[in-house]
Amino acid sequence: MKFKFVLLAAAAAAALAAVPAVQAKPFKWTSASDIPTLDIHSQNNALGNGVHAAVYDALVYYNSQTFKPEPQLATSWREVTPTQVRFTLRTGVKFSDGTPMNADDVVFSIMRAMGKTSNYAVYTQGIDKVVKVNDNTVDFMMKGPNPVLLNQLTELRIMSRAWAEKNRSLEAKDIRTKDETFAHRNAMGTGQFMVKEWQPDQKLVMVRNPNYWGKVDSNVTEIIYTPIKSEATRVAALLSGEVDLVLDPSTNDLARMRASPALKVIDGIENRTIFFGMDQFRDELPGSNIKGRNPLKDMKVRRALYQAIDIDAIHRVTMRGLSQPTGTIVAPQVNGWTEAVHRRMPLDVEGAKKLLAEAGYPQGFEVDFACPNNRYINDEEICQAVTAMWSRIGVKAKLRTLPLVTYFPMIQRHEASIYMLGWGVPTFDALYSLQSLTRTLGQGGDGNYNMGRYSNPRMDVVVDRVKVETDLPVRNRFLTEGLQLSNETVSHIPLHNQIIPWAMKKNVEVVHRADNRLDWRLIKVN
Predict the structure, then answer these.
(1) SS3 state at 432
(2) Which helix or strand (DSSP H or E) is residue 25 part of?
(3) Would you say residue 236 lies in a domain?
(4) For 443-488, what is each residue's pLDDT tens digit?
(5) CATH number of the domain enclosing 126
């Protein structure tokens, strides 16, 4: 079946909905970590992407109820040829400084996302170039047919070319270095809000954009985000009324919050899977007692580490039920997932010891183990529990935990032997995960988060086929094959899909999304 883009015509551009002063409300929220940057093409981080969406718009964006892409800065699109897709841009859109948005800004932004310092190439996979047709029309010239182009575009937001030129931000900030661009600490988009103030690790304040083009079903006029690392302090801030919503409440306090007449908790399965990656590239692991060899290159060792983990204990004790144990690297909402790939290998401590002995490590080995301590639900606690579990088979994991802002640049420099990662899937398609996590490092987003540098020739064939396959049943079979191959070769050690509770005051109305981000257009504070 040939994939075809569906022509979507948007309604006429709505005027900015004014909010009566008596209804105007601030919205104060918190979670454990700060965003890493305001640069929309620098660090592909879910928390940051969600915040960026308040300030910058994309050509298309997901509907929060259906998760189908719908018009945003583009009003319609059509397939001119299988490798040429034409987008008609919304007219009358202005950046927050009052300057008009046009095709030049779109071309610049997509090409900036494709640049060497950008961490967003995975969203531009399949795009050869973007061409201006006229001020209100652009053509995406593709390397081949791409059945998930619209899904990818939901994360490619549009920046003013003139603003970037003026402020020497033509290229994205390189997260692997400490060098900064103006766009790292400043923002100027077409979105519903503008950045008023950002003090990293302290406070981010956003206010309404007076030039916003769209209609808003929200009475929020100011957003104040305060990162609070301490779980107890986050909960106390909500209970005292200091904040309106906690994105990641403590699992230990959920029962108390659910029972409070002033609060409510809503939850759902996130499209994010938590797993461990392993260095399968170096010939010798730094800091290990094994010299001249890398135990993690041996599939028997990787399987032993997997089967030594008591995932039920983590689910029951560490996560207090707020997890869905899994045997694969994508969640059920993601295209390509099946019950078969979801099934875990069984816990088998004695079998794990035997596998280590067969691999030549009967006494186990020492290994570096790195985890974040403020990114995922109970991330540090999970890693502490796993460290104890691995010790039962003789593996001495030397655990170190770091905050998000230093953890991600560190693992992207390949400085961890075993590392934790939580991978959400903004495209809701397994290509995004397979290409980023299991494809051999290459161009156009291939292997951009394959920090263990896993490489399998068959996996590369599968991923490259999926990129251009437009027969959907055939494509889905290849996606499932890729996930099965990841399982069989233990490319990673999957743990669980996160179940995300949001805790908030009773007077707050939000739509819970599977990507764990707030839809700023829909928030109301009554």
Answers:
(1) helix
(2) strand 25-30
(3) no
(4) 878 998 999 999 999 999 999 999 989 899 999 999 999 999 999 9
(5) 3.40.190.10
